[in-house]
């Protein structure tokens, strides 16, 4: 690997980690097109490092929310006279949103790793796209909207989103954000509320997964690789931050089905360059 490749992969990771297009699929396809084997220990370690860059970016975007959830904010508690205080997101929402996926990932880790293959990702891209189109149709035609923003989510909705997230854990390439955003819409949360909560719960999950994987990979940090890892990390951080901010600002313009159509295109590229 050279610095140009590190920059390219960092850009791809930052672009795709938090939007529902499958970062796994993009990284496999990009490595293949660049002529690199993404299964080598060094490449796997590099992937973990640039993923950490993306996680820190999303952590910075939601830093005020995180501080408030941890009880570290000095923001005064509002007083309501003769009124029921409005719902606010709390730590229990986050726990319910991440617990199912962490449990599945822990108990089925080896089984999940055995599922990683181009064929699995190809079908996940197609299935995930159909799932997102179905969620958008359901939300517009059948759903009773009970949460217009993240603070209006119920604990039941948080748990439902967490359960839907398990699909992406068990099926590489399905997309974590795709399953959670679509799952939120199936449970009656708005597109924006689902996306916000999806991004927020990505932080503890990805830190846990990346940290665990790093325990097996730290020995690959050498004089020869540290510079490449640093470049990929920084590029991933910057790009992920820009992408998430742009996505949240244009969320009403870019519907979920648009990402689904893109996934179908990516599946066609997979079929052309990976499967054949």
Automatic annotation (TrEMBL):
Residue ranges of the TM segments: 43-62, 91-108, 120-139, 197-215, 227-247, 259-275
Key word Transmembrane present: yes
Keyword Transmembrane helix in annotation: yes
Entry EC number(s): 3.6.1.27
InterPro entries, per database record: UppP
Source organism superkingdom: Bacteria
Enzyme superclass (EC): hydrolase
Membrane topology: Multi-pass membrane protein
Location in or out of the cell: Cell membrane
Primary location class: membrane
Keywords annotated in UniProt: Antibiotic resistance, Cell membrane, Cell shape, Cell wall biogenesis/degradation, Hydrolase, Membrane, Peptidoglycan synthesis, Transmembrane, Transmembrane helix
Catalytic reactions of this protein: di-trans,octa-cis-undecaprenyl diphosphate + H2O = di-trans,octa-cis-undecaprenyl phosphate + phosphate + H(+)
Family: Belongs to the UppP family.
Function, in words: Catalyzes the dephosphorylation of undecaprenyl diphosphate (UPP). Confers resistance to bacitracin.
Additional remarks: Bacitracin is thought to be involved in the inhibition of peptidoglycan synthesis by sequestering undecaprenyl diphosphate, thereby reducing the pool of lipid carrier available.
NCBIfam families: PRK00281.1-4, undec_PP_bacA
Protein name: Undecaprenyl-diphosphatase
Encoding gene per record: uppP1_2
């Amino acid at each position: 690997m050279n610095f140009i490749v590190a920059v390219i992969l960092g850009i791809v990771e930052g672009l795709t980690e938090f939007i529902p297009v499958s970062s796994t699929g993009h990284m496999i396809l990009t490595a293949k097109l660049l002529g690199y084997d993404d299964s080598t220990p060094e490449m796997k370690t590099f992937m973990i490092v640039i993923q950490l860059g993306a996680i820190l970016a999303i952590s910075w975007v939601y830093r005020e929310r995180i501080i408030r959830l941890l009880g570290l904010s000095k923001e005064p508690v509002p007083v309501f006279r003769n009124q029921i205080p409005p719902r606010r997101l709390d730590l229990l929402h986050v726990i319910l949103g991440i617990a199912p996926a962490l449990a599945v990932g822990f108990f089925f880790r080896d089984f999940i790793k055995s599922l990683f293959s181009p064929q699995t990702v190809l079908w996940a891209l197609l299935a995930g796209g159909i799932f997102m189109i179905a969620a958008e149709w359901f939300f517009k035609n059948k759903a009773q909207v009970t949460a217009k923003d993240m603070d209006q989510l119920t604990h039941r909705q948080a748990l439902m989103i967490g359960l839907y997230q398990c699909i992406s854990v068990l099926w590489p390439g399905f997309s974590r954000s795709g399953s959670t955003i679509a799952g939120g819409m199936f449970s009656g949360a708005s597109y924006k509320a689902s996306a916000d909560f999806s991004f927020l719960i990505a932080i503890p999950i990805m830190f846990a997964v990346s940290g665990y994987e790093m325990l097996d990979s730290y020995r690959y940090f050498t004089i020869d690789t540290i510079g490449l890892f640093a470049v990929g990390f920084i590029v991933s951080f910057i790009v992920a931050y820009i992408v998430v901010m742009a996505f949240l600002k244009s969320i009403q313009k870019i519907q979920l089905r648009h990402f689904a159509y893109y996934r179908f295109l990516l599946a066609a590229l997979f079929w052309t360059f990976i499967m054949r």
